[in-house]
Amino acid sequence: MKKEDCFYLGIIARKYSFKGEVVLKLDTDQPEIYENLDAVLIDFGKTLVPYFIEKSLFQKGNQLRIQFEEVYSEQEAEKLLKKGAYLPMNLLPKLEGTKFYYHEIKGFMLEDISFGEIGLIDSIDDKSSQPLFVIKTDSDEILIPMVDDFIEKIDRKNKKVIVRTPEGLIDMNRA
After folding, report:
1. Alpha-helical segments (H) within the chain
2. Is the pTM of this model over 0.85?
């Protein structure tokens, strides 16, 4: 399975016991939905390798203690440390309303209620303190803060994100 067909679940953060157990730090707002997984795909650079779960236990916060099949020593567990864990996209829970996954809205039209169509969402810049919609047009790049109060509707059927931005914000982005 290719990485682009999967979503990032978390990272193998540390060993838990001398019997090969590890702790997977989940990168999600809903860690409890991943408590009863059968397997995860571990990222070994160019390859995602399936690891089957013998048993798991949800821990405090967003941590899942896992005993993988065929990993029964500290040395075997050591090979998994700091590796990313992935799952196939079809296992992502469906979101509704104004909630969305970043990858889901790439290519959607961003439309402002007052301004009209702004352009296609090229990507999400989440490296700053406030994530931004990145819209590329023929002449420039427009950055719109991804603020919950701005997002009016996610129209999945028509592939649109409808926002209500403060007056002047879009013009400020145009050179």
Report:
1. 74-78, 169-173
2. no
